Amino acid sequence: MLAAACEASKALIYHYYKDKNEILFDMLDHHVRHLNEAAQGVLENDEDDTTKLRSLVKLLMGIYVRSRDKHVVLMNEIGSLNPEQQAQLTETQSRLVHQIADLVSRLHSVTSLKGPRLRTAIGMTLLGTLNWTYTWFHEEGPISADQFADIACEIFLSGVQSPSLATLAAGLPARRRRR
Fold first, then answer.
1. Angle between helices 49-66 and 68-77 (to 10 degrees)
2. Given 67, 118, 133, 175, which residue has the most CB atoms within 10 angstroms?
């Protein structure tokens, strides 16, 4: 199927890859590196940290929506790889988690956020909020990827009691009943 999709022969594919796991790893490694490189571009710009968070969350949400298939495979098939490959992907993902945690920590200059365990948990919470949208988010649904990114940012910036969150919610369409 892969050879057909690439309009290539199986022999050509296996000239570059020794087996299916190597293909899987290459695809997942490319996806994770793309996420990190895109995030790095936002994190290194001269904007203030609030703007960086908003830009980063919108960027990641956009990548997840555009690369849904790769992301689903990443979330569900990383265990199919050998331990070295899993470790490499996990390390690359961890860099992104820690960069997000550092950004959120700077935004909330509360002493309790300075500990590495809590900061990692916060970074994982924000990424988890975005990572698992593939299970429920649909582009043709009632809210856009940017609207969801705004909601997630507002929760991380001000909490669920934020007046801005109420304003965002008021702008969303009424809930449709499922049939």
1. 90
2. 133
